[in-house]
Amino acid sequence: MAAMAGVYGPLMHLKMGFVHVIVAASASVAEQFLKVHDTNFSSRPPNSGAKYLAYNYHDLVFAPYGPRWRMLRKICAVHLFSSKALDDFRHVRQEEVAILAHALASSGKMTPVNLAQLLNVCTTNAIARVMLGRRVVGDGSGGGDAKAEEFKSMVVELMVLAGVFNIGDFIPPLEGLDIQGVVKNMKKLHKRFDTFLNKILEEHKITGSRGTEGHVDLLSALIELKDVDHGEEGRLTDTEIKALLLNLFAAGTDTSSSTVEWAIAELLRHPKIMARAQEELDLIVGKDRLVTEADLAQLTFLPAIIKETFRLHPSTPLSLPRMADENCEINGYFIPKGSTLLVNVWAIARDPNVWIDPLEFRPERFLPGGEKPNVDVRGNDFEVIPFGAGRRICAGLNLGLRMVQLMTATLIHAFDFELPNGLSAQKLDMEEAYGLTLQRSVPLVVHPRPRLGPHVLKF
């Protein structure tokens, strides 16, 4: 689609089966859809992923825009993603990242480690402790295990299936035939997730949980909210609770861990940038402790590295689809009601009309004196929108930013990384795998060499 936009322009109409698909592939066009006409494009088109994986549109990500969606969004905003909620559980994220650092220091001495899996264990447990009051994978050592590998594979499979071009979504008369076998696979995966979530929900109803240090975890809060009548929004159901948990596990674990994996891969290929980042961390944090979230506000170069990683490797390269509720006009073109909108986040962030040397990894472009010193990733600057923008911007944006920054800062502060078998960093495979999220085609395997003493990393 990015290549087509280079030929036909940044606003394209594609006819996919029975569906009108509109593709926005420049910052200015994306702004028209996601800011100027945001209200008209706040719903999702029908799709098999939402129907068979996300509890038939009962989740936050795919729910139709309206009272029920607003209720779910408000619950997340208050109980999980508010500044107070994020600060209350700051210690959880720091503890899980410290466990990750300990695991890397302990396991990477002799044999190379699969960084992707350890990052996924870290993000999954950090989110699980906030949501459920306990870990769901690993034993707290930070090491990989079979359960963690299975859970990651389920999340990756979900992202792959959700990103498949399913013919039945675009030619409805063929939906029942399931020509590609996509729906069959979705139903099987949904059953696995539902079993996992049912077990968690039933255990929680019996035992309850106040998480750590007396903070009520999200699931306990959700169970209590079932008794509250939200007026026109109605009451929260078990199905919506499970759908919400599925969203948070799927959207909050793999996206964060894969972004950090891309960041480390880029820094391995750019040792001067790595050295500059380590120098800043040594100056601000020192070498006698690990990075904390309080340190992040004092850093200037690290946030630029994170922005540049989000630019080159956006976790959702093609935005989740939106649908036109009414006819409208964009840039002089008629957009019919019911059209599906896709925003090509990947293409926008590599637009040569906006970025100097767009394929180069250059964090300094976001620093004072650089080409885009004031551009942020929070949905206001459309040149780089890894979390989307407008009403349906990623609800977990602030949590995702904190988690990605803390993990990346800790890894590059605490370790130097070498590739196994003498592999040159310039020959590192940077191919992308296909799916709803931007995975590395080949997981990053490294030898971590501690930069901090044993008393800090406890190895």
TrEMBL record:
The name this protein goes by in its record: Flavonoid-6-hydroxylase
Membrane topology classification: Single-pass membrane protein
Oxidoreductase among keywords: yes
Top-level taxon: Eukaryota
Lineage start: Eukaryota, Viridiplantae, Streptophyta, Embryophyta, Tracheophyta
Gene Ontology CC annotation, any one: membrane
Catalyzed reaction equations: apigenin 4',7-dimethyl ether + reduced [NADPH--hemoprotein reductase] + O2 = ladanein + oxidized [NADPH--hemoprotein reductase] + H2O + H(+); (2S)-naringenin 4',7-dimethyl ether + reduced [NADPH--hemoprotein reductase] + O2 = (2S)-carthamidin-4',7-dimethyl ether + oxidized [NADPH--hemoprotein reductase] + H2O + H(+); genkwanin + reduced [NADPH--hemoprotein reductase] + O2 = scutellarein 7-methyl ether + oxidized [NADPH--hemoprotein reductase] + H2O; (2S)-sakuranetin + reduced [NADPH--hemoprotein reductase] + O2 = (2S)-7-methylcarthamidin + oxidized [NADPH--hemoprotein reductase] + H2O + H(+)
Transmembrane segments: none
Organism for this UniProt entry: Abeliophyllum distichum
Cofactor: heme
InterPro entries: Cyt_P450, Cyt_P450_CS, Cyt_P450_E_grp-I, Cyt_P450_sf
GO molecular function ontology, one term from the record: monooxygenase activity
